[in-house]
Amino acid sequence: MTVLRNHVGGRFVESGRTFDKTSPVDGTTVAVVHEADAVIVDAAVAAARRALNGRWGTSSVADRAALLRRIADGIEARFEDLLAAEVGDTGKPVELARRLDVARAAQNFRSFADTISAKGLDAFLTDTPDGGRALNYAVRKPLGVVAVIVPWNLPLLLLTWKVAPALACGNAVVVKPSEETPSSATVLAEIIAEAGAPDGVFNLVHGFGAGSAGELLTSHAGIDGVTFTGESRTGSAIMKAVAPRVRPVSFELGGKNAALVFDDCDLDRTIEGLSRSVFTNTGQVCLCTERVYVQRGVYDEVVSGLVEAAERLRPGRPEDPAANFGPLISQTHRRKVMSYQALAVEQGAKVVTGGGAPALDGDLAAGAWIEPTLWTGLDNAAAVMREEVFGPVAGIVPFDGEEEAIALANDTEYGLAAAVWTSDLDRGHRVAQRMDVGMAWVNAWYLRDLRSPFGGFGLSGVGREGGEHSLHFYTSPTNVCVGLTGPWSAEEAS
To answer: Which residue in the list 86, 179, 180, 252 is annotated as catalytic?
Structure first.
């Protein structure tokens, strides 16, 4: 049986309490995990502080960039180990995890190595009130000890998305992965140590949220900032935990993302894109579409096309080449998603496909499986059109004109992402810019440049990460102002 331990100050440590991590595919035990207690969390924070006060705190940009590139090399060298860890924890198809999760992990480290290497000094001359001049420049310093809390849907991808810029900027981190996906973080701890990171630069604590490692970490006096991806209500709890100490936070939270389909769209391209945005990773991506608004002229065709796409999905074991649809992360989450399926029907939805759980034989019957589900007949007042379900579900609603579509899409407390499908690029630009979201795609979905800002509005989060936007969170600037004397013009010089 695999045993997963906490990683503190360069060594793996056990605790006095463990929990079982079970497979969402068939309910079998994947690993026994040591849950961090207050003593271990304290030790992890202290180890991170020692690293900052030691040689890591005086490391150069070139040294840090070189470390990030060695970590990327280590990820590629242990690609199959990380792949097995991700698939074992999440149950997602092997090819999805290979293409999306693990490949992107190495890219994250290389991208931020390039970003920090290219970052120059911000300097400018200013006129002062007395007619003199001053040279101003900002020195960006590490934020300090950063708590990194990541979810279970894309555990390695999102972990590296946060750890890479944090280390690039010279911080030390204490990571808490989800209790549902502890395995890949453990492998990453080994890779970072093997890459030559000083002890304490990367620390790992396992556990749950409230009353466990998550709460202990976010409320710890030694934490200088928190970066978190996950549910909006958990983000709110973290904000309350750090408020007494006024610590900065970077949150990427939930979404109730809309797609707007206009009747001049390329139908085949649109339906393919919509099927990915609704059903990828069993709908367990913060950027997935749960609301589809379709202009009446193509409404029936879009509904039938999406139904066909949903019914082509095949559940099965991750390694089965015929399977292209995985389980939900847990039985607890399955119950939540199924409760929304029932609620949709209660509120008047017509289920055009799915609506339940697939009948699977053998060991798979114990897994957290669910059917891809599409509803019609609902409007924006329905709870399932307002609350994040985080499963392979979507409501499809007709509209008549552009202004109506924009109003429907923006009628939400969330503001993470949107997609606009149209052959009229003037309309595409116009509508995308009016979406109250952090990211708006036109004729695409999940197309990402790692230098672009990532984040949302409202219940979808606080702050932006990606490229130089990440550097703003993971550093604190000190402005240096140097008063200059001397002649400022040719007349004065003569």
So the answer is: 252
Query: 195: number of CA atoms within 13 Å, CB side?
Result: 27
In DSSP notation, 127-148 reads E-TTS-EEEEEEEEEE--EEEE
pLDDT in tens, 175-189: 999 999 999 999 999
Instruction: Please say whether the beta carbons of 258 and 291 come within 8 A.
Output: yes
Q: Is 252 designated active site?
A: yes
Q: Which of 128, 182, 142, 115 is nearest to 469 (CA)?
A: 115
Q: Which of the following is catalytic: 35, 179, 265, 286?
A: 286
Single out the residue of 481, 454, 456, 16 nearest to residue 235, CA to CA: 456
- Residues 119-154 as b or e (16 or more Cβ within 10 Å = b): beeeeeeeeeeeeeeeeeeeebebbbbbbbbbbbbb
- Please indicate whether residue 169 is annotated as part of the active site: no
Go through the domains of the chain in sequence order and give each one's CATH number. 2-253+460-480 (3.40.605.10), 257-442 (3.40.309.10)
> What are the pLDDT digits (tens) for 224-279?
999 999 999 999 999 999 999 999 999 999 999 999 999 999 999 999 999 999 99
Residue 1: the pLDDT is 84
Angstrom distance (rounded) from CA 166 to CA 226: 11
